[in-house]
Please model this.
Amino acid sequence: MPPVRDPGLTAVEQTAAAPVTFAFDSLDERIVNAAATRGKPTVLAFVTTDSLAAQAQVDFLVAMAKRDATAVNYVIVAIGAQDTRELVDLYRRALHVPFPVALADSTTSTGAGPFGDVRAVPVTVVLDREGRIVWRSDGRVAKSPELRAAMVGL
Model:
């Protein structure tokens, strides 16, 4: 198990060496599940459409994705009952998100999924190439330098 990277920020300790398993309903034909993200570092951001902090997080990730091209997977996962497919798609288009955007399932939305409690948005998680959680930020915007530091060596 690789060490949790803590660039002086909130980090999460892995509770098991096993990769997390997940599958979310994507807004388009791109697959958003654990198997599809294997082989590259992955940044997942759990957001709601009514959070300004979550919107700022998405903006940072969109900028990072432009630089990273295909070296890193980026995924936005919308949580919350108010976040319908239509509203989330409008949000995606308004923020010019080029990578997959998905809807959380009910297990994830209630905090019982493999990522734990994600209701204090934004929650940003970095997975290693095998799909193990190596870094996490809860309830605040994780900026590009700290996310890049979390991905060093992945």
